[in-house]
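Feature request, filed as a ticket because there's no other form

It would be nice if the structure record came with a short human-readable summary line next to the tokens. Right now we just get the raw output. Example of a typical job, pasted below so the devs can see what we mean:
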Amino acid sequence: MKKYIWLVLVLLLLFPPGSLPSAHAEGKEYTGVLEDLQKDESFSEKHYPVVADDYSLQVVQLAESTDKELFVYLYQPSGQAKDLRAASVNISLAPRENVSDFRNYKLTYLNSSGTLYKYLVAGLTVSTAATRYYTVTTVLRPFDESIDDEADHGNTVDEVEFRVAKEFCFSEMNGQPFCRVLDIDTIEITDKFVGFVRYTNGFTLFPGSCDSHFVAFNTDRDIDRLLEADVYYEYQDCSWSFITYVGERYTFGDRQEGYAYLTYEQKAEHTGNGWFAPTYTWNRIETVDEFIAENDLTQNVYSGVLIDVSVANKITEEGKAALEGKQWVLRFAETEYSTWYGTGTNGYFSTLVGDVMILRLKFETDGVTYNLGVIDNKQTGSGDPVNEEEVIIDPSNGCKSFLSILLILVLLILLAPVLPYIIRGILWLFSLPFKGIKKAKEKRKQKKEKEE
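Raw output as currently delivered:
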């Protein structure tokens, strides 16, 4: 049964920020968290006690300002002792019946009092529509190794997730502003692995590859068919070089956000531009079994008069261990990897991909279609691909026949001086059984004649 909460926020919604200085963000002054929340007569600070070993984040309320800003008020039970800071929040501006286009918004800390914290949602401008929706699935904070569990298989957790699962609807009733809060259904990621597959471009002067990035996962709900998926990630160009007598140097580009909107009908393909480059194809959404099968195969990439060339691609044992037990794979991005070398210098260029988070899943279970926001963390994989490629060069069938004939001819030439003797020896050996049989017959005949 759905839970409805009606909150009258007349004073808070109309109260312009900056009337009482208590916090600053980019030169602006904002009111304090308690001052805002106490405008609701039902609010009591005693409902938000300190729980020293509870490091969660819990949304108390959202509020809009007359400057078209959105604020998030959090209850953080560990309070000022740990003084954790929220980092981001996942919000869709669509109502719960048709959630879409979830965005990950950064949170700017404004001020706090005890266990209550106030944040500004950076980059979100309040709409001028008469009714405004904020469907919130998750609020996140940075990973803290002293209190949080680490990821397995070389992955690292960047931000830890906390369920919100509420729809906030802002509108007017009888000419007065109000906010309605409704609990919503969500789906939670229970097990996750972020990685990439590296597909080489074949033999070129400066070797290059395509890195195909993916996230493998399980959820707390059964999924018969996965139809759509939205993925958030961050990426950054990185180059490394080494120069003799100078040393090594790293250069990084600006960190950027990426969103991938995947469907089960989408496919991707990569064929390298070098010699003997194989072609790889894959579905954007697939099962783990399908993912392993398409990356555990050998492809013939060249058949010639003299040689046959194949490329064997396989998932490493470490990669299979990381994928074990997971059900779904999302192939959400491809990036370039290239190397170079010269006199006294060498290096590589790549794109780092991390902070991977699943935002929305549309799926079928028992014939029913669900479209739900996702509860998930931000996670980054290791710098090593989960696969290995091996180029196999074998003589072709025609080459094998040619070599066999050539070998026979060489042997005949080498053996020519002694070949008559060899032939005589072979004939002599071949004739031995017949001579033995003839001699045996003669002995029987002589014996018979003597008896007569």
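Something like this underneath would help us a lot:
The chain has seven helices and 26 strands.
The CA atoms of residues 38 and 44 lie 8 Å apart.
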